Amino acid sequence: MSALAPYVGKAVVVITSDGRLFTGILQGYDQTTNIILESAKERVITPDAPTEVLDLGLYLLRGESVALCGLVDDEIDSQIEWDKVRGLRLGETKKLGR
Amino acid sequence: MLPLTLLNTSQGHPMLVELKSGETLNGHLVNCDAWMNLTLKEVVQTNSDGTRFFRLPECYVRGNNIKYLRVPDEVLDIAREKNQQQREEQRKSNQPQRGGYNRQYSSSGQRGGYNRNRGGGNFGRGGGQFQRGGRGY
């Protein structure tokens, strides 16, 4: 079973079930994927306007709202000009019935 | 660090809770449990549009309704200090008694040197009783 242990202390990107994108340093997690993000920032990517970055501070995300948690490659990330990035807004996740 | 540990440490601190419905609750955390159920006091409830505000002296949030919590930055440092303190306390209680003579001898009067008397006295090994000096067990 894979866990988030190798990501602790590193910069990660989290996408939540409502389609929001957060970056921050993963400080902790548990079996339900509740996540502690330090220095969390939300990146709002839209089709027309420059990417907004909102500084949020210390975040505790509930596992149910976490869709994805990925490791940031600092090399690649520093080469991206985020204010030039454009994109469609992510939708919400759908809960499928049993 | 476990997320619920951080949550427990933030008791007494102000925080923002966003619910799955998009409503936000701003207030001080009174208590929390393993299911992330919370009691908050002096709460300002805002609807998901940000257009309506309610003030509640107290409220209870069932954990499964929470999307996320925003917590003051200093809580992380406080939680880390607590972890360190707990670890030090564990170390102290695990360590065998050292330094000077072990005064937990029974009246067999055995100290360093040969321990000729086996079976009598406190000869525990591990569990905190060690005999200093001496060649026997």
From TrEMBL, chain A:
Matching PROSITE patterns: SM (PS52002)
Keywords: mRNA processing, mRNA splicing, Nucleus, Ribonucleoprotein, RNA-binding, Spliceosome
Top-level taxon of origin: Eukaryota
Organism: Lipomyces starkeyi NRRL Y-11557
Known function: Plays role in pre-mRNA splicing as component of the U4/U6-U5 tri-snRNP complex that is involved in spliceosome assembly, and as component of the precatalytic spliceosome (spliceosome B complex). The heptameric LSM2-8 complex binds specifically to the 3'-terminal U-tract of U6 snRNA.
Family to which this protein belongs: Belongs to the snRNP Sm proteins family.
One of the Pfam families matching this protein, by short name: LSM
Protein name (Swiss-Prot/TrEMBL): LSM2-LSM8 complex subunit LSM8
GO molecular function, one term: mRNA binding
Key word Phosphoprotein present: no
Automatic annotation (TrEMBL), chain B:
GO molecular function: RNA binding
All residue ranges annotated as the Sm domain in the record: 2-75
CDD domains: LSm4
SMART domains hit by this protein: Sm
Recorded coiled-coil stretches: none
Ranges of compositional bias, category Basic and acidic residues: 82-92
InterPro entries documented for this protein: Lsm4, LSm4/Sm_D1/D3, LSM_dom_sf, Sm, Sm_dom_euk/arc
The entry's keywords: mRNA processing, mRNA splicing, Nucleus, Ribonucleoprotein, RNA-binding, Spliceosome
Keyword Transmembrane helix tagged: no
One Gene Ontology biological process: nuclear-transcribed mRNA catabolic process
Compositional bias segments (type: Low complexity): 102-117
PANTHER family, A to Z: SMALL NUCLEAR RIBONUCLEOPROTEIN SM (PTHR23338)
Family under the similarity heading: Belongs to the snRNP Sm proteins family.
Subunit field text: LSm subunits form a heteromer with a doughnut shape.
Function: Binds specifically to the 3'-terminal U-tract of U6 snRNA.
Name the UniProt record assigns to this protein: LSM complex subunit LSM4
Species: Lipomyces starkeyi NRRL Y-11557
